[in-house]
Write a structure and sequence with these properties.
This protein is mainly α and 128 residues long. It is built from ten helices and no strands. 62% of the residues lie in helices and 0% in strands.
């Protein structure tokens, strides 16, 4: 594990360091920056378009990811990313409703388990 990876994982890492290492060529560094709760919103926005699906997945998982980014990631080509959007408690209800018909069963189950999913939507998922 590199120093950059360790710094990216540490919630005490200064913001300026997180910003600097957010463009590291190492995907594990970028993934850990995307997961870090202190990563600035503008960095999360940039990382949400990363070519690596794992980085986008980590952005979708971050509790500080802005709603507009979660909305965009809810249509990501990779189902793992959509699964993390469905699991994020900050995902808007209308996005959860759309994801309730996702082609991937794991995404639909994650929607059903999200505490903000309307009961009728969860029931529909489990009945179908």
């Amino acid at each position: 594990m590199t120093i950059q990876e360790l710094a990216a994982m540490n919630p005490s890492t200064p913001v300026d360091v997180l910003v600097k290492i957010s463009t590291d060529e190492n995907i594990d560094v970028r993934r850990n920056v995307a997961k870090n709760p202190n990563t600035p919103v503008d960095v999360l926005v940039k990382l949400s378009t990363d070519k690596d699906w794992g980085v986008r997945l980590c952005v979708a998982e971050n509790p500080h990811t802005p709603v507009n980014v979660l909305v965009k990631l809810s249509t990501d080509k990779d189902w793992y990313v959509r699964w993390n959007v469905a699991n994020n408690p900050n995902t808007p209800v209308d996005v959860l409703v759309k994801l309730s018909t996702d082609e991937n069963i794991d995404v639909r189950i994650a929607v059903a388990k999200n505490p903000h999913t309307p009961v009728e939507v969860s029931n529909y998922i489990f009945d179908n």
